Amino acid sequence: MKGRSGDSDAELLRRIGDGDALAVALLYDRHASLLFALARRIVRDEPEAEDVLHDAFVLVAARARQYVPERGAVGAWLVTLVRNLSIDRMRRRNRHGAITRDVLGPETRIASRGPDPERELAGAAERDRVRKALAALPEVQRATLEDAFYGGLTYAEIAARDNVPLGTIKSRAARALAALRDALGEPEP
């Protein structure tokens, strides 16, 4: 994907690896709305989703040189990074919540902030594109991706739940991701 700087995402990662802070900002501007929507859908809390997005771009700066273009598009790499960070945060939150409930009781609930209208508008077009691309997938492929990326389930958990071989789930996900790449105009890995 090319953007305002004219550099591809892969070129921006190379620049980030060389310590270029502007490249981080450009990559963030290109992908933040989609990545934030993904994090918020998984963690179900806007401030935590903001933290996930921040943590992701700190890791991008630290791991930029580890990106291997042959393994997939930068956008897919970022989605995987945010997904994994979101799932980790949910697991930590669930463990912390259980301890809090057991030790402190129900009076320790923390209220979350409401939605930010500006952020909602900024990501609406990108979310609409992704929704339309997802809706065009066969039901079984769409369900696999939604369970994995939005529901936070691993492929092994989906296979066990659906009583389907793990390879079948991985194949469904791979075909679905390839179809999404085509629909969204992402280059082949």
Summarize the structure.
This protein is mainly α. The chain is 73% helix and 0% strand. The model is unreliable at 98-112 (pLDDT under 50).
Q: Could you walk me through the main structural features you see in this protein, from its secondary elements to its overall organization?
A:
With 189 residues, the chain is an all-alpha fold. The chain folds into 2 domains: 1-113, RNA polymerase sigma factor, region 2, helix turn helix motif (Rna Polymerase Sigma Factor, Chain: A, Orthogonal Bundle); 136-189, Arc Repressor Mutant, subunit A. Helix content is 73%, strand content 0%. The protein has 8 helices and no strands. It has helices at residues 9-17, 21-43, 46-63, 74-103, 117-135, 139-150, 155-162, 166-184. Helix 1 (9-17) packs across helix 2 (21-43) and helix 5 (117-135) packs across helix 8.
| Distance, first to last CA | 12 Å
Uncertain residue ranges: 98-112
What's the architecture of the largest domain in CATH terms? Orthogonal Bundle
Give the CATH topology of the largest domain: Rna Polymerase Sigma Factor, Chain: A
> In total, how many domains does the architecture comprise?
2
User: Strand fraction band?
Assistant: under 5%
Order of helices and strands: HHHHHHHH
The CATH homology group name of the largest domain: RNA polymerase sigma factor, region 2, helix turn helix motif
> How many strand segments?
0
Radius of gyration: 18 Å
Largest beta-sheet characterization:
none
Shape: globular
Q: Which secondary-structure class do the elements indicate?
A: mainly alpha
Average of per-residue pLDDT values: 79
Tally of individual helices = 8
User: What is the CATH top level name of the largest domain?
Assistant: Mainly Alpha
Helix content: over 70%
